[in-house]
Design a protein that fits this description.
This protein has 294 residues and is mainly alpha-helical. It has helices at 37-58, 68-86, 91-96, 102-130, 132-155, 173-179, 189-193, 202-207, 217-230, 236-255, 261-293; strands at residues 3-5, 11-13. It has one domain. The protein starts with a strand and ends with a helix.
C-alpha cells in the first residue's frame, strides 16, 4: 500500500485513511472538547493585534522612520546569494515565461490576496463543526506557526522579489543603484497588472507588511489546510484536488514575485515547528487537566 509519510502527525494514504470514530478519545482524556465560538474569534483578533503591533514597529509601516528598506534589501541579497549557491534561483525565469499576460497575472494576484485568508478561515470554521476531536490541536498548531512567523518577520525583514527594482517608497531600486547591483528582471505584477488591492496605498498598505516574506505564511497555511482537511474528506478525487492547493500556492507566490523559493522552504519548516509545538502544548494541557480532574 503506497504511503507518503510526513513528519507531521498525519499519514497520507493513497488508498485509505482510518476514519475518525465518534467515540475517539479527545486530547483531554475522554472529555469532549468544550469549544466556544467567541473564544476562537478572540484568538483570531488577538493574533491580528499582535501582527499589527509587529508591522507598525518592525514592518513596512515603519518604513518612513528609519533604514528598514535597506535592511530588507540587504536580506534579500543574502537570500538570492544563498539560492544561487544552491542552484534554485529561478524565480525571475519562471515569471518571464508568462510576461505580458494581464489576465493570467490578475488571476494569480487575486489568488494571492484572497485564498490565503478565506480558505484558511473557512477551513478553521469547518473544523470547528466537523472535526472537534482534532480541532484544538490543529488550532494550536496554526497559532504557534503564525506566532513564530511574526517573530521571524520582525527579526528578518525581507524585501520580496517584486520590490527589488520597484521605485516606490517600499522598493529597492534606489538602493540597488547605490550598491551597483545588477537587475534581476522581476516585475511587480501587482503594480503592473493589478489585483484585488494595492499594497502601496489605501487599506492594503495599512493592513500589510510588505517585508513579511520569510518564512512564507502562504505556504505554511496552505499546507496546514491540506493536512487537516485530509483527515475529513474520503473521496480520492477530492484528496487529489486538496494536494493541488499548496502546489498552486507555491506557483502563485513565485510567479507573482511575492516570495523566493527559500521562503517556501522556510514556511514548511515553520509549520513543522508549529505542529510539534502544538503537540507539546497539548501534552502539557493533558497533564494540567489530569491534575485538575484527577
Amino acid at each position: 500500500m503506497a504511503r507518503l509519510a510526513l513528519r507531521f502527525p498525519v499519514t497520507f494514504d493513497v488508498v485509505s485513511v482510518k476514519s475518525v470514530e465518534p467515540q475517539e478519545v479527545s486530547a483531554d482524556h475522554g472529555r469532549q472538547p468544550v469549544l466556544r465560538w467567541w473564544k476562537e474569534a478572540l484568538i483570531v483578533v488577538a493574533f491580528y493585534v499582535i501582527y499589527s503591533f509587529s508591522r507598525n514597529l518592525f514592518g513596512s509601516a515603519h518604513v518612513a522612520k528609519g533604514s528598514l528598506p535597506l535592511k530588507a534589501f540587504n536580506n534579500a541579497i543574502r537570500v538570492i546569494h544563498l539560492e544561487q549557491r544552491l542552484h534554485i534561483f529561478h524565480e525571475a525565469q519562471i515569471q518571464a515565461w508568462f510576461a505580458g499576460d494581464k489576465l493570467f497575472f490578475q488571476f494569480w494576484n487575486t489568488f494571492y490576496g484572497t485564498a490565503h485568508f478565506f480558505v484558511t478561515i473557512g477551513v478553521f470554521i469547518w473544523m470547528f463543526f466537523r472535526d472537534r476531536n482534532h480541532f484544538t490541536h490543529s488550532r494550536n498548531a496554526l497559532a504557534f506557526t503564525t506566532a513564530i512567523a511574526i517573530v521571524g518577520f520582525s527579526l528578518f525583514p525581507l524585501m520580496p522579489p517584486r520590490l527589488l527594482e520597484n521605485t516606490g517608497r517600499y522598493g529597492g531600486a534606489a538602493i540597488a543603484q547605490q550598491q551597483g547591483r545588477p537587475a534581476y528582471g522581476f516585475q511587480d505584477t501587482i503594480e503592473e497588472y493589478g489585483g484585488p488591492w494595492s499594497f502601496d496605498s489605501g487599506a492594503g498598505a495599512k493592513v500589510s507588511n510588505q517585508y513579511a516574506a520569510m518564512p512564507s505564511l502562504h505556504i505554511a497555511w496552505a499546507t496546514w489546510t491540506c493536512i487537516v482537511v485530509w483527515r475529513i474528506v474520503k473521496r480520492k478525487w477530492l484528496r487529489g484536488l486538496l494536494l493541488l492547493y499548496p502546489l498552486a500556492t507555491l506557483f502563485c507566490i513565485v510567479v507573482t514575485a511575492n516570495h523566493y523559493f527559500t521562503d517556501a522552504i522556510g514556511g514548511l519548516l515553520l509549520l513543522e515547528i508549529g505542529w510539534l509545538s502544538g503537540m507539546q502544548f497539548d501534552r502539557w494541557n493533558d497533564q494540567r487537566l489530569a491534575r485538575k480532574y484527577g
